[in-house]
Amino acid sequence: MSLLDAYEKTKQELNVTPEKLTEITDHFVSELNKGLSKTGGNIPMIPGWVMDYPTGQETGDYLAIDLGGTNLRVVKVSLLGDSKFTYEAEKYPIPVPMRTGKSEDLWNFIADSLDTFVKKHYGSRGSSMAKLPLGFTFSYPASQDAINEGVLQRWTKGFDIDGVEGENVVPLLQDAINVRNTPVEVVSLINDTTGTLVASKYCDPETIMGLIFGTGCNGAYYDVCKDIPKLEGRLPDDLLKENSPMAINCEYGAFDNEWAVLPRTKYDIQIDQESPRPGQQYYEKMIAGYYLGEVLRLILLDYYSQDLIFKDQNIKPLQVPFAMDTSFPSRIEQHSAPFVEGLFLDSFNIKTTEEERNIIHDLCLLIGTRSARLSVCGIAAICKKRNYKAGHCASDGSVFNKYPHFKERAHEALNDIFQWNCDPKDYPITLIHAEDGSGVGAAVIACLTEKRLLANKSVGTIESKL
Ligand code: BGC
């Protein structure tokens, strides 16, 4: 077999046809419903306890933190009403060993960063002032019986810290904050997708869902309380009477963990088996930023083992797991084939021929296209489930923002599923860039929660203390 033959085979394997997209989407719809049922399913479908649509008129000052896959962000948000806001944010990179380190190190790191931020932005007023309300964006699957709690179901995106799964993370953080006497109280815990949904709806009423295509992938949308069978018998009367909406954090990265429809390749299987949580997040492991560079690396190692590429070279640096993050395929696609030469020399001390560079470039195109096409199955499934015929899908995350052509490819795939067959600029359902979910979204949610509490409205199940 030649390198070109091997590439052609990979091309077949990574191709997702319109028929496959439709098959996946239909299965996805039934899995979303299963997740809301009493027995549950693979997709957690977590009620996020946001039971109001923002009007754009919310006002007030809030703090927010976002524990994502790569950075901790601390944000000071002022909601000004009229869909307007201002904010100041700081990023604190999460040290890589912390992802698999000790629980207390993580909470101490967050509390220290928060303390530094409060001192810098509020100065000496810090310790004497009333406690600042904080919205905590925790971008991992966390079960919630109320807006101010979140029990981590399992780590994703390469995190693996003992002693946190099964725990309510709000007191873990609050205790670390209290030790430092930082005047902050965690009032709400939200997922990044729920934040994205609410922040975008604060600014754009046509928003129908909030999506993250970043280190991980996930989506949130508004359902209706009475249509959530697993909450039957657990909902306070006011929510039932008012027929309240309910934001749902789907956690659909876990779609198809039983592997019924996804066109997984041997590379996807290997990524899963070598991950800290095999058997979980099958969908996410095929499309999210944490894994796209790894797919490319595994394909290249496979070709190398067949003596098809990098012949007679020492490729040790490339044999290190996750040696290429997603910026590799993304930059290669952006800069075209000749860019591969310097990149592989500088990063791995590997020389490439022109044919190899062209093939590596084309592989990046295939990996990015597969990611975008599979990504829209979650969107299409939510639209089918809620019968949305038009609207804006507020999207954020490094893959959406940085991987070349993601949006165009996603739109093309949506058209493959819905067969609009009109000019792309007239597609009724489109991906648009989201407002800052973890900052503005967390602030709007904290504000909506305060209002509900003041009005004596529920913000959790009948068993919750709120
Ligand atoms: C997490 C979700 C999160 C998504 C995007 C996934 O790995 O489970 O909670 O929304 O990544 O950040």
TrEMBL record:
Claim: ATP-binding is one of the keywords in the record: yes
Gene Ontology CC: cytosol; mitochondrion
EC number(s) on file: 2.7.1.-
Protein name (database record): Phosphotransferase
Domain Hexokinase N-terminal: 8-202
GO biological process: glucose metabolic process; glycolytic process; intracellular glucose homeostasis; mannose metabolic process
Function: Catalyzes the phosphorylation of hexose, such as D-glucose and D-fructose, to hexose 6-phosphate (D-glucose 6-phosphate and D-fructose 6-phosphate, respectively). Mediates the initial step of glycolysis by catalyzing phosphorylation of D-glucose to D-glucose 6-phosphate.
Residues covered by the Hexokinase C-terminal domain: 209-447
Keyword Transferase annotated: yes
Record-level Gene Ontology MF annotations: ATP binding; D-glucose binding; fructokinase activity; glucokinase activity; mannokinase activity
Protein family per UniProt: Belongs to the hexokinase family.
Pfam families linked: Hexokinase_1, Hexokinase_2
Record-linked Gene3D superfamilies: 1.10.287.1250, 3.30.420.40, 3.40.367.20
Pathway field: Carbohydrate degradation; glycolysis; D-glyceraldehyde 3-phosphate and glycerone phosphate from D-glucose: step 1/4; Carbohydrate metabolism; hexose metabolism
Catalytic activity: a D-hexose + ATP = a D-hexose 6-phosphate + ADP + H(+); D-fructose + ATP = D-fructose 6-phosphate + ADP + H(+); D-glucose + ATP = D-glucose 6-phosphate + ADP + H(+)
Alphabetized UniProt keyword annotations: ATP-binding, Glycolysis, Kinase, Nucleotide-binding, Transferase
